[in-house]
Amino acid sequence: MKEQQTLSNKAASPADSEKSELQKTAVRQQREIADLKAENLASGNENRDLREAARLDQITIENFKQAQRQIEVLNRSLQSRNRALEAVNKELEAFAYTVSHDLRSPLRSIHGFGEALQRSAAAKLSPEESKWLQKVLDAAARMDRLTEDLLRLSRITRSQLKREVVNLAQVAREVVHELRQTDPQRDIAFAISDSLEVQADPALMRVALGNLLENAWKYTGRRPQALVSFGRQQRDGQTVFCVRDNGAGFDMAYAAKLFAPFQRLHSAREFSGSGVGLACVARIIHKHGGRIWADGKTGEGAAFFFTLPDQPLLVEDGEPAE
Fold it and tell me: What is the pTM of this model?
């Protein structure tokens, strides 16, 4: 009996073992199926994220293209307006040149005949009449100066740049020498840096420095110890030139008027001039592709800064400067 039971147990063992293996295989397959389902789910989520990202990218690209088209339209409109503005400016410059040129002859005739009348009829005129005639002469002389200033501005605008190496220090010393000849007794000190070489139009830079230094000479006229300096410094990797004085200065609230033609921050009774000098300087610096600005304080002097690009740039008329 015992032998039959033992044989029965031995016969059942392989079947049980096979069943156990099948169960393990089934569990393993279920785990693999679950992992595959999880991977498929993650892949599906990733695909949805990619599709959403692609959709958003497409929207961004379309928006960019639309913005680019708008920029192109605006650029064409701006170019058209710039061409129209350039044409108007050229017409205005031509008009100013023609008017100022044609006015000079009659104005000088008025002044000349007025002086002749003043000499010949001096004894016959009353004091009041003599005063009236003098006012006519003064007005004609002032108008002649204004027309000359208009011509100066027009010539600067219409001129072509001829770039070459210019030593601004040497130019400044020449201007100072000429200024000292006008008033040898003037007590004023000039400090000019050495070898300030630039690529620029020598004739135009002579005009620009002449105006800046003449301004400094004029507005330090009431200083017992006047001082004017001209040098350069580095700002943000760029060379900046500066003409500085300890003269009358100006109120920074009105600094925007400094470089506009015929705008003055001091009355003619205080300091002579027509208000064109700094406008000429600004046009010359801008013509070279540079910038100009000023800093000052009333009663404490002024400083005029300007830059000159190292490389030739395009000038107003679109021709490359040489």
Answer: 0.57
